[in-house]
Write a structure and sequence with these properties.
Number of domains: 1
Shape: globular
CATH superfamily: SGNH hydrolase
Low-confidence stretches: 1-27
Structural class: alpha/beta
CATH class: Alpha Beta
Helix content: 40-55%
Number of helices: 9
Oligomer: single chain
Length: 221
């Protein structure tokens, strides 16, 4: 998918020459950060235009907040934590400052053992942290298709991972979307444009301070 790349326009070049002639120092433009969103169809934006998926919305929010960033969409429809782990090297090859991990929905639908899901997420988080990449973990819930104990274990897993690895957690990335027909496509599964924007707004309060910490060199991984 292609996204808006935040950059200084050519008009700045002409502005700089006149400013320098007047003896005034040019304004400092913060360096753009690279963020990778690793996920499934919720991330890829199945059924949506590229600029409507939540990673693109986050990119615009960051730009508006004065935090120029490029958000790369590494979402693959139907993917599981195991599938994302297999393609993790491609995501890390982007040399991101932050990795958004938004996975688990398809694992839960398929009844993948929670221990296996946890192991895959652990390996993803560890691989990122070994490269000093900050991680933002997004929680998801499993439908009660495989018993209440499975659903409870699935729910606890995200908070436990966040505590173990010291990473911020979005408790439930689909808050306000699931069960809300105004936020869903006709399949009543995938978010529509409004739903994707709502996901971005849910992630935003956790992503913004993380980007500021990374930009300020305050974060230790």
């Amino acid at each position: 998918m292609t996204f808006l790349v935040l950059a200084v326009t050519a008009l700045l070049a002409t502005g700089c020459s006149s400013t320098a002639a007047a003896g005034t120092a040019p304004s400092q433009v913060p360096p753009a950060r690279t963020i990778v969103a690793l996920g499934d169809s919720l991330t890829s934006g199945q059924g949506l235009a590229a600029d409507q998926a939540y990673p693109a919305v986050l990119e615009r929010l960051l730009h508006a907040a004065g935090l120029p960033s490029v958000v790369r969409n590494h979402g693959v429809s139907g993917d599981t934590t195991a599938g994302a782990l297999r393609r993790l090297s491609a995501a890390l090859a982007e040399n991101p400052d932050i990795l958004i991990v938004a996975l688990g929905a398809n694992d839960g639908l398929r009844g993948v053992p929670v221990a296996d899901i946890r192991r895959n997420l652990e390996r993803i988080i560890e691989a990122a942290q070994e490269r000093r990449i900050a991680v933002l973990l997004c929680g998801i819930e499993a439908l009660p298709l495989y018993g209440l104990e499975y659903t409870a274990q699935f729910h606890r897993m995200f908070a436990e991972l966040a505590e173990t690895y010291g990473v911020p957690l979005v408790p439930f990335m689909l808050t306000g979307v699931i069960g809300n027909q105004e936020m869903l496509q006709p399949d009543f599964v995938h978010p529509n444009t409004a739903g994707a924007a709502r996901i971005a707004q849910t992630i935003w309060p956790y992503l913004q301070p993380l980007v500021r910490k990374v930009a300020g060199g305050e974060l230790t991984v």
